[in-house]
Amino acid sequence: KSLKNRSKLTIILSLSAAMFFSPCIEIEAYFFTAGSLGWPGITAVSVIYYAITVMGMVLFVNLALKGIEKVDWHFMEHHEKKITGLILIVLGLFAYFVHI
Questions:
Q1: Residue 34 in contact with residue 45, Cβ under 8 Å?
Q2: What angle do CA 49, 54, 58 make, to 5 degrees?
Q3: Which segments of the chain have a pLDDT < 50?
Q4: What is residue 76's three-state secondary structure?
Q5: Exposed/middle/buried for 25, CB within 10 Å: 0-12, 13-18, 19+?
Q6: What pLDDT, on the 0 to 100 scale, is given for residue 86?
Q7: How far apart are CA 83 and CA 81, in angstroms?
Q8: Distance CA 61, CA 56 (A)
Q9: 3-state class of 69 per DSSP?
Q10: pTM reported for the whole predicted model
Q11: Packing angle between helix 8-20 and helix 28-35, nearest 10 degrees?
């Protein structure tokens, strides 16, 4: 079926459902608003959202790297096998007793 044969309510509900189940729900209102401006509006929102997302990722990675440089890893280096084993045991017990 083509979109011309469908009601506006059906189209809006299907687009709303698709955007609701997407992981980027916070941008949904901007895309609905930009939709009234046509493809240039949708493209502008997409490009701006992409640029802000990438800049945010780069900023947070840089902040994390600066923070992780301050951590003293001496203890972890000497006890890594014990820590890994303990984590695996705890995860195994969790998986055994908690049936999700």
A1: yes
A2: 150
A3: none
A4: helix
A5: exposed
A6: 97
A7: 5
A8: 9
A9: coil
A10: 0.50
A11: 150
